[in-house]
Amino acid sequence: MIEVYSWATPNGHKVHVMLEECGLSYRVHAVDIGAGEQFDPAFLAISPNNKIPAIVDPDGPDGKPIHLFESGAILLYLAAKTGKFLPDSVAGKYEVLQWLMFQMGSIGPMLGQAHHFRIYAPEKLPYAVERYTNEAKRLYGVMDKRLAKSKYLGCAEYSIADIAVFPWLRSWKNQGIDWKDFPYLKGWFDEIGNRPAVKRGVEVLAERRRPLTDDRSRSILFGDEQYKRH
Predict the structure, then answer these.
(1) Of the candidates 75, 87, 66, which has an alpha carbon nearest to the alpha carbon of residue 12?
(2) CB burial string 79-110: b at 16+ within 10 A, e below
(3) Strand 54-57 versus strand 66-69 pairing type
(4) What is the CB neighbour count within 10 angstroms for residue 134?
(5) Torsion 87-91-96-101 (CA) sign
(6) Residue 29 β-bridge partners
(7) Angle at 214 between CA 209 and CA 217, to 5 degrees
(8) In degrees rounded to 5, what are phi and psi of residue 172?
(9) What does the alpha-carbon distance between residue 176 and residue 179 come to, in Å, rounded to a whole number?
(10) What is the pLDDT of residue 34?
(11) Partner of 35 at 20 to 30 A CA spacing, among 9, 171, 209, 227?
């Protein structure tokens, strides 16, 4: 059984969805990021960047245990372990991987900043709100254009690229998005959201999630506590 250390965030849900899609047995350990549990030494031993998610697979390569952090690396590992959601052909594999990296390098960081300045920042800075809202719209446009000519983001088949992106778009309202501007992406979003494994994956730890707007949570996530050396 794979041990999953996670929380109900887009990055956490990527891994929850992948595990459900692959039909793998797993056990979830909640890491309450608003309470600072990501700084626990035991968690840092498997996730040195103090970010969720992380996994421990007792049946790793050559039958030996392996622990991994970074959601993209975990998706790649699970795809390799199961032979699912990543094309076998070299060309197809790299077509998917470029869109996975698009999520890791653009969707996650930029939409995360949009969330921060639109929702969490104690002071609403018009420049920052406008900058990251506009970037969110630009990225949605990139995906909409892609999906105008491809059934899925990575290739003609559902893949880890779709699994990686979908959880980030569930907060589209917080990102200042109007779906009527992105019809192809909206069709894709609805289709992915209706997959049974996706529905199960995004419910993992959902009952534990709460608004992280109190002073203690702000310090842990965005302030002094976040920047201490742990």
Answers:
(1) 75
(2) bebeebbbbeeeebbebbbebbebbbeebbeb
(3) antiparallel
(4) 12
(5) positive
(6) 5
(7) 65
(8) -60, -35
(9) 10
(10) 87
(11) 171
Per residue in 192-218, pLDDT (tens digit) is: 999 999 999 999 999 988 776 676 776
6 pLDDT tier (thresholds 50, 70, 90): very high
Q: Alpha-carbon distance 222 to 121, whole Å?
A: 9
The arithmetic mean of pLDDT across residues 115-134, rounded, is: 93
pLDDT at 65: 96
Q: Is 176 left (phi over 0), alpha (psi -120 to 50) or beta?
A: left
Helix (H, G, I), strand (E, B) or coil at 207: helix
**Distance between the two ends of the chain, CA-based, in angstroms?**
29
pLDDT class of 225 with cuts at 50, 70, 90: low
Q: What is the pLDDT of residue 220?
A: 74
Provide DSSP, 88-123: SSHHHHHHHHHHHHHIIIIIHHHHHHHHIIIII-SS
Place of tokens 């970074």: 70
pTM above 0.70, yes or no: yes
Half-sphere exposure of 172 (CA within 13 A, CB side): 17
130 in Cβ contact with 117 (< 8 Å): no
Backbone angles phi, psi at 128, to 5 degrees: -65, -45
